[in-house]
Write a structure and sequence with these properties.
By secondary structure, the protein is mainly alpha-helical. The protein has two domains: 159 residues, no CATH class; 77 residues. Strands 1-2 form a two-stranded antiparallel sheet. Strand 1 and strand 2 form a beta hairpin. Helix 1 crosses helix 6, helix 1 packs parallel to helix 9 and helix 7 crosses helix 8. The chain is flat. The chain starts with 20 loop residues before the first helix and ends with a helix.
């Protein structure tokens, strides 16, 4: 559980931390679109180099970002098995009994793994360099044009911010409950199938109770502070775009354009 880093803000004094959250959110979306462009390994190499440069500029640790890949190893192994069973194109690599594994199955799995790695690096970099309050303000400003069609921009931004903020808390709470249950003799790793189901229930039930209690406490705190959804609100902090923010956006646009060109001439 401690490997999950998405949603954790890391306070640092870096140029990326000081950037406007709207610029970082838009840049993240543009780079995520670029990741799904079929630009080949050259394109992925360019994106990785750019994202790695941003991570270094933000003074973040690569170990901190890459360790969040560990919980996804099972899914990647599952994708590899499915691709080997389904895909029958490409060059036969090796044979296990009567079963033949083709090169396209391995290549397709590697593409998916690289895309997931890049997506995790990009999203973790955003959440690690942006405060939850700034994230809320940025999302709200980006959604404001949709208020003309009655889209509640502030409420949506608040929900997203609360969800991101509660992810680390719930993970820490899960770890705490697991340790408490293990100290009482509950085995979460070994045993029969029925015993594992009961062990999972002993983890899930208190976790849900704790989550609902946190939600109720947050609702009471917001109500005590006079929060009313739909009401017009003023801001203490007003977001302003600076030169470095426009440079970030232009760089993200240039990266997306480069991936489109590589995909077209591939």
């Amino acid at each position: 559980m401690g490997n999950f880093t998405l949603g954790r803000y890391i306070p640092m004094d870096s140029p990326i931390h000081k950037m406007d959250p709207r610029a970082k959110i838009c840049a993240m979306l543009l780079v995520l679109i670029a990741v799904f462009m079929p630009a080949g390994w050259l394109g992925y190499g360019i994106i990785f180099a750019v994202v790695a440069g941003v991570i270094l500029c933000a003074k973040l640790s690569f170990r901190y970002i890459l360790k969040s890949m560990k919980p996804m190893m099972f899914m990647m192994l599952f994708l590899l098995v499915i691709n080997c069973l389904v895909m029958k194109t490409g060059t036969p690599l090796f044979t296990i009994g009567s079963f033949v594994i083709y090169s396209d199955a391995i290549t397709q799995t590697l593409y998916i793994v690289v895309r997931l790695l890049l997506m995790i690096m990009i999203t973790t970099c955003l959440t690690a360099t942006t405060k939850p309050l700034e994230m809320t303000l940025g999302i709200e400003d980006l959604l404001k044009p949709f208020e003309k069609i009655h889209v509640p921009s502030h409420e949506i931004a608040m929900l997203i911010s609360i969800a991101l903020r509660f992810i680390p808390d719930l993970i820490d709470e899960t770890t705490r409950i697991m340790k408490a249950q293990e100290s009482r003799g509950v085995d979460l790793k070994e045993g029969k199938f029925t015993e594992k189901i009961m062990a999972i229930l002993s983890l899930v039930v208190p976790l849900f109770v704790s989550a609902f209690q946190r939600a109720e406490d947050l609702a009471n705190a917001m109500e005590a502070r006079g929060y009313a959804p739909g009401e017009k609100r003023t801001r203490y902090k007003v977001l302003k775009m600076h030169k470095r923010d426009w440079i970030l956006l232009c760089g993200a646009f240039a990266l997306l354009a480069a991936m489109i060109v590589l995909a077209y001439f591939r």
